[in-house]
Amino acid sequence: MDTIASLFSFITTPVSWVIVQFHSVYGSIFGPDTGWAWGLSIVSLVILIRICLIPLFVKQIKATRAMQTLQPEMKKIQERYKNDKQRQSEEMMKLYKETGTNPLSSCLPILAQSPFFFALYHVLNGIASNKTIGVINDSLLESAQKAHIFGAPLAAKFTDSPEKVQALNSSLTDVRVVTAIMIVLMSLSQFYTQRQLMTKNVDTTVKTPFMQQQKMLMYVFPVIFAVFGINFPVGVLVYWLTTNVWTMGQQMYVIHNNPTPGSKAQAAYLERLSKHVAKHGKTRNRRERAIVKAIVAKGRDRNEYERKFINGLNKAGLAAQSDGTVIKSESSAAAQAEGGTTTATAAPKRQQPKRQPKSKRHNPGAAKPAGEPTSLTKADDPQDAKPSGGNGNAKPAGNGSTRSRAQSGQRKGPQRPKSPSKK
């Protein structure tokens, strides 16, 4: 570990200088030899580094989401060229180049922190070995050796011998209890951060090997921290616990305000946004307008939560625009002009004539009630009825129920009534 840390010795001087500057501020408040002064100096170093790494964190989020989007295409390439690893790698690189994504971008914050982490380890190891390093002179070295965090020296480790711990004016029990608690907290914070990412901020509609890989890392990373944590000084554990807590809070903010499309976090966010827009009739800021603009631009490619959001706006009488703004829809404006109620002129229903009973269809001479549509069945041929006497009364032939004869071009039997044309 010392060999690896020595590779980053070029940054040891800047890191030790930053710690000394923060120590001078906190030392004037809590005392120069207290664990609060040195511990808060390390915490402030972490915060300063993480603030500087925010642009890389934003780039990491974009790269991670781009990789999630490419997972279906990557899976197709793996299945197509599963027997040709070289061609599979070539197609993967071609896909990355076409989409402008880089798999290593998701590791940028961790890689950028590595020099500071090893430089701090080198500084604390020098304090434990009673060696001046960077800008830490003899007086600062003596002050750092006196500093204890909850009874554990700043430079002590879980694996240190009792003699070495006694040289730092502490007991082995205090060191191991404090380091064990910090290692557990460090592992739990890492586990919760990864679990929060997997359960809330992952597109649940896409099942890919990437998700299985992230799920595996959720359990592997805490074990790694627990194994290597016993070899870290207390000061390094303070550093790593602080950066884990910062990452957890930073991720919670991103999940709450800018979730991954298709995730449960997006469903919750769009529900909150829909309620606010329906209440005030507009979006609040540029970030919300950018989200609405992206949803509108997707068109038919919207996921279930995005379609529900658009439908909710329509029900509230609002319409999302292509620039991300929200305006009142035309139907809503017309409703307000008419007194707040919408009156839609419905087309008249097409009236179908009542179907006559079978007895009436076969006996067209039967009396019809008033108002009932006349049957279209042709009456008996006049030739079938002969006049009797001079009174003009017609005597029906047979039993009076002779069926009508079919005319030329007309179907035999009772005719289907035609629907009256719509006027």
In short:
Helices cover 59% and strands 4% of the residues. The radius of gyration is 42 Å and the shape is elongated.
Can you describe this structure?
By secondary structure, the protein is mainly alpha-helical. Helices cover 59% and strands 4% of the residues. It is built from 16 helices and six strands. The chain has helices at 2-6, 12-30, 35-52, 54-80, 85-99, 108-128, 138-146, 162-167, 172-200, 209-229, 234-257, 264-280, 286-298, 304-315, 330-337, 358-362; strands at residues 148-149, 152-153, 318-320, 326-328, 386-388, 393-395. The strands form three sheets. A two-stranded antiparallel sheet has the order 1-2. Helix 9 (172-200) runs parallel beside helix 11. The longest helix is centred in the middle third of the chain and has 29 residues, at 172-200. The chain is elongated, with a radius of gyration of 42 Å. Residues 332-348 and 371-408 have low confidence and may be disordered.
Any key phrases for this structure?
423 residues; mainly alpha; two-stranded antiparallel ribbon; 16 helices; 4% strand; elongated
